[in-house]
Predict the structure.
Amino acid sequence: MLKNNLHGMTEAVATYRDLLAREMCGPSDSEQAMHRIQAKYGLDYWTQWGLRYRAPKRVSADLVDRVRQAYLATLEQSVRRDIARLEIEIAKGAPDAAFTDLVAEAQGLLARIQTRRGVM
């Protein structure tokens, strides 16, 4: 049980750090990014503070899942933005057929992310 909890804690901290890095707009934006994460995904500011500044002794399965879901939502947004940019390039008349292939691959990735999140 302790090993699984340690793995869950390590996973939650690492995933949270990736989530925070994706949300930050620059090196001094961490506090504001934490507030944006709270507003967007419902992760309490002080829970985030604990994940960021001190390793928690215990983490609930619910917290690990909420951090993971927030991270997957951020990845989904990023892939959607990339698909939109690629479609703009195609609409401009980009002669490279690779753009069409990239859109198809990105849509496949988006579908996989949505499956993992449980959203369809």
Remarks:
- The chain has five helices and no strands.
- The radius of gyration is 17 Å.
- The chain has one domain: 2-117.
- Helices lie at 2-23, 30-41, 45-53, 61-91, 98-117.
